[in-house]
Design a protein that fits this description.
binds S-adenosylmethionine; 13 helices; 270 residues; alpha/beta; Rossmann fold
Amino acid sequence: MIEQRTLTAHQFGAAAAAYLASPAHARGTDLGRLAALAHGSQGLAALDLGCGAGHAAYALAEGGAQVTAYDLAPEMLAVVEAEATRRGLCNLRTRHGPAERLSFPDISFDLVVSRYSAHHWSDVPAALAEVARVLKPGGTLIVIDVVAPETPLFDTLLQTVEILRDPSHVRDYRVSEWTAMLRAAGFGSFQADSWTLPAEFASWVARMHTPALRAEAVRSVWDQAPAEARAHFQVRSDGSFLMDVAWMQGRKAPWGGVAGWVGLIASFAP
Ligand SMILES: C[S@@+](CC[C@H](N)C(=O)[O-])C[C@H]1O[C@@H](n2cnc3c(N)ncnc32)[C@H](O)[C@@H]1O
């Protein structure tokens, strides 16, 4: 029996080249938004958590940030290094490890981004506590991820097809769950917006090497799903469907949270 993190590293290690080529990952207006955010900010220290084949990291680095691309799967990092060299990006380095335990000193980054990764993390609150630790006061966290509908039936169906397709899936959280987790980790001025992402069935299962039996089970789940759920996900006859993706952005308190305020007040004390 293998543990969740090992399973994740194994699943993605075997799929590294496919993620570099995947249009669903290589394209998206969110990548343009990330590049615009980094543009003209030479020296902005950015961390891409769960970088995969590096599409968010390239957007930030091409915008001018100093980027650290971080992932659990060494094969993904090898792909990122080769692609960064091919693109002539000298401002991008890679580091290996889990999001839940970061090997970076406190207050080392201005911006932390995570795109399409957090639904695989075994402990999101632990990862958010680590992000809060490594961000500078006033620093920004952007999580871009598939999110579950707030309707319980739709939520259950989404998690079901996700885990059948990829056994390393943990949970597509609802925006309301993200809001609570981000607030609990101390991120203020929270904002979110969302759009839909097509999951084209054939490439969606091929990318993760889903065995035929499990791919068939996904189709069976959709076939028997209630009409309102099929309508919500716009399920097509080949099993393709639409997922909701959200951009969730929070800011660490400018004075480093409660500890920062205590320190600031203490510094004025007679
Ligand atoms: C879908 S890929 C990410 C796509 C990429 N961010 C992009 O913009 O194209 C998900 C990545 O998250 C990584 N991952 C999953 N769980 C992780 C964890 N706990 N810590 C760090 N990385 C993790 C996987 O190894 C995988 O490379």
